[in-house]
Design brief:
2 copies of one chain form a homodimer.
Chain A lengths: L13 H8 L3 H8 L7 H14 L5 H8 L4 E7 L4 H16 L3 E7 L4 H13 L4 E5 L3 H6 L9 E4 L9 E2 L3 H14 L6 E4 L5 H16 L8 E2 L4 H12 L6 E4 L2 H13 L9 E3 L16 E3 L2 H16 L16 E3 L9
Parallel strand pairs in A: 1-2, 1-3, 3-4, 4-5, 6-7, 6-8, 8-9
Antiparallel strand pairs in A: 10-11
Helix pairs in contact in A: 1-2, 1-3, 5-12, 8-9, 10-11
Chain B binds a DNA duplex through helix 2 and helix 4.
Chain lengths: 342, 342
DNA sequence: GATGCTAAAGTGATCGCTAACATGCCAGGC
DNA sequence: GCCTGGCATGTTAGCGATCACTTTAGCATC
């Protein structure tokens, strides 16, 4: 029954510091929070006592009384996909830079109930605010359930949403990609799209179509895929059988890689026979053969904007405050996978 | 001054539920924690009251009194690199599956003070335990500073460490890769290594050398790089100038891709002139040209082992308990980047 | 009918902190 | 002299749960 050897002496609290410094615990609290009305001499004594005891303030207790945890929750899908991961990483960095800790509620899938539950879990932890990375329609519905007074920012949600949203201008990126192929002299551009339900997919289709229409080009049917390399490969096999398909805009670099592999296997060269443009600028993009022309979204900028927007809500500016931020515009990165038709 | 419309009615607490159900707060607590000695009828009344008020237990308060937060902290570098990200994702999944929430302390760099500080931040949040993903020597030092009684698991740390460590058998993976090239008929195998300070780098070098020595093959000098594609490219340029280099084991798929690009540019074909094997099995590996033979670590298995190990510490089994787990063994994935010399 | 035992509930203290108010002290103005 | 007021500090009351007791009720036993 005497159990663990070594006294189970718990970590020192404010009272311990106070006793050692010969003041009341409240004075210790004041020193801790930088309250002005403390004599310099006292402050030093308290600081010394803290040092000596190795005192660390208990954030949990503080959170209980203030109701503010200084933790920002991130809701994201549990995936290693490049895009979402990059956004997440960038958001974490920005959140930390703003002096907040991060709590993660990663969900297996982005359906309504999973997201609602994830937000609930974060709420139970009394997070100060939430960043939701959920660029799919099903996620958007869940967002209606969240209490109005919870500071929140959505990344990559419904572009039709009016507030608390930060996005990349997917449509503009898609236009860039398509125009680049058109400018190389192609009559039209085929499109391998991402999965249904993703705003990224839908917006990229829209941008592609717009660019085609603007140029008076024919609009071929969309080849629907998901985000996997395999799906790109399958779409590529289809494309390889159509000699008229000479230019392809793939909705992601992974899809583009799949397409190129299928094309290569079918004996069609890139960019000789077929030009290809991707989207995301994954690190590998410049190292496949041929190096892939693609569109680069600025994830860091998105994250910064999101955190800034969240912070403004925490500062108590009206919840429906800043009407709508301009989406972050991506840039075209030209490499060697585009050539004129021959 | 009347500020927000709508009474700032705070979220209901146990007392509110108790009042509505006509019991004491303690009974509510008992219902919440599934304590046996509660009459079925009472239990139902309390449940109904909770439902009606939309009651959610305050985890913060619970943590304060129990000292247990049911949050597992993850310390990891803030990066989107495939390996670390995959591990992290897998760990989050396992932690969630075990019924814990996750708090992340991502650090900009894996140096000693950053890690110590990150752990400190997590400690302040009273995390139940910590998973440190830090496969570098500088991180290992920081681990000596952590209090003995904090449940902790290190992923990818010093293989010499005796306990609380989960690793991938990097050395075995490297042997697999090297032997595969040797088995194809090559006299020897060159190695492009990861950056100094990473256990992954060091272990892979060791495994490579072992396999060479076992086969009685000559051991060429190591070409040191970091994890970037670019570094692989540079190493590849070197290799391309050495006609005798016919087989290369790159310490990661990214490095392999860089090497292959340089080789291709120099007019040397893979695997015709030079065979290449990578490490990691990134999703793109099967889609580069030629599809890359590589070594696949089982990240999910590592994560599960880590969480199991952590949980066993939480359950109060002795801190220095299970001596040492066997490292997770990776598997060779054969594709088309290896061929006999000609 | 007093006693004992157990299930089902209640009471009060406590976790470590902050907020609000109370106190003591010393300056200045009527 | 006494009030007013700003400092520097102490005191007390929570925040919302759990924990260690105590109390009450119900029933079998002596």
């Amino acid at each position: 029954m005497d159990g663990a050897r070594g006294a189970p002496r718990r970590t020192p609290g404010m009272t311990d510091v106070a006793r050692l410094a010969g003041v009341s615990h409240q004075t210790v609290s004041r020193v801790l929070n930088g309250h002005p009305n403390v004599k310099e001499q006292t402050r030093l004594r308290v600081r010394a006592a803290m040092e000596q005891l190795g005192y660390r303030p208990n954030r949990v207790a503080r959170t209980l009384v203030t109701g503010q945890s200084h933790v920002v929750g991130i809701v994201a899908q549990n995936t290693a996909l490049y895009g979402p991961t990059s956004v997440r990483t960038a958001v974490e960095r920005s959140v930390n830079a703003a002096g907040f800790a991060v709590g993660v509620a990663s969900v297996p899938a982005l359906d309504r109930s999973s997201i609602a539950e994830a937000i609930g879990r974060l709420l139970d932890q009394r997070v100060a605010g939430v960043v939701v990375i959920a660029p799919v329609t099903s996620a958007n519905e869940a967002l209606d359930d969240v209490p109005d007074d919870l500071p929140m920012v959505v990344i990559g949600g419904d572009p039709g949403r009016l507030s608390r949203l930060v996005t990349i201008d997917q449509r503009h990126g898609a236009r860039l990609a398509t125009r680049c192929l058109l400018a190389a002299g192609h009559d039209t551009v085929w499109h391998v799209s991402g999965p249904a339900g993703w705003y990224d997919s839908a917006e990229r289709v829209l941008g592609w179509r717009e660019a085609l229409l603007d140029a008076g080009a024919e609009v071929p049917p969309v080849l629907a895929a998901d985000w996997s390399l395999d799906a790109g490969y399958e779409a590529g096999q289809l494309l390889a059988r159509m000699p008229s398909a000479r230019a392809v805009f793939a909705a992601s670099d992974h899809l583009a890689m799949g397409v190129m592999k299928a094309l290569r296997q079918a004996g069609r060269s890139v960019p000789g026979d077929v030009s290809v443009v991707g989207f995301d600028d994954i690190p590998e993009a410049g190292y496949v053969c041929p190096p892939l022309t693609t569109v680069r979204p600025d994830f860091a900028a998105v994250a910064e904007q999101a955190v800034r927007l969240l912070l403004s809500q925490l500062d108590g500016s009206p919840p429906d405050g800043p009407p709508r931020l301009a989406p972050v515009v991506p840039a075209l990165v030209e490499r060697d996978s585009v050539a004129p038709p021959r």
